[in-house]
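Supplementary Data S3. Sequence and structure tokens for construct A.
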Amino acid sequence: MMRKTKFILIIMVCLIALIGCSKDKNVMGNQYTLEDVISVFGSQNLKLASFGILGTSLSLNKTMPEVNSIETEAVVDQSEPELVYLYIFKTEQARNTGVKEFNKKMKHPKYTTYPFLYEKGNVLVIYWAKSKDSPLMDKSIQMAIEKL
């Protein structure tokens, strides 16, 4: 009788450990790095060039963006490039908080470009397009983010 109880106890411990490990895997599955994001942009023939830190860069939920100009072969005039802000948050929840903060800041925008947001896992990409109605790289960026 005692052996049977020990055996059941061991089985339960193993099951709990397996379930706990599988949950951790799912959480980590939505964690991306800056290199992951840059790689998927490249897969869509979008070239990112570091733009440095701008005085107007938006810190969201204590996270500063990696600011890049975005280029594609379709763009002829690169004198005023469109920008992409890449935010890599610690968690998906932190990203959600950052998006809420961004939306609050955008209630009274003071920009001449239009923000388009793309979210996946812990990543937030903000594409600042020159056109609100027909952003040049919207579809390519959407496809890149879906590939993460």
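Construct B, processed identically:
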Amino acid sequence: MSTGGFDPLGGDSGFEVYPQALRAATNEVFAARDRVTKFAQGDLAPMVLRDEDVGMIGVRSQIVPVFNAVVQSMREKSERGAERLTALAEALDKAADHYETQDEEDYRQLRSKEEGLN
């Protein structure tokens, strides 16, 4: 567990960071990314409407290109969302690395002080 961010004025930030909680959040975000990717590439990909699927009225109303454009837009937005979730998960993982390193350094300093007292 690390205390929160750096305060140049020497005050306490008032929060604590648990790297293992950040790692758990990272895993959840990656899982969400995987679900969004599956939706875009697995569930939406086969959703293609053809003229023969809608009959004469559907063809005349131009519903096929409208429907296919909507599905394509949903796929693109889902894929962009998955990319953003990846970036978020990587940032959480990087933060966890930072706080773990900080914890290790704090522990080394504490051990060093403890050894100096003995």
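The CA atoms of residues 26 and 91 lie 9 Å apart. The longest strand covers residues 2-3.
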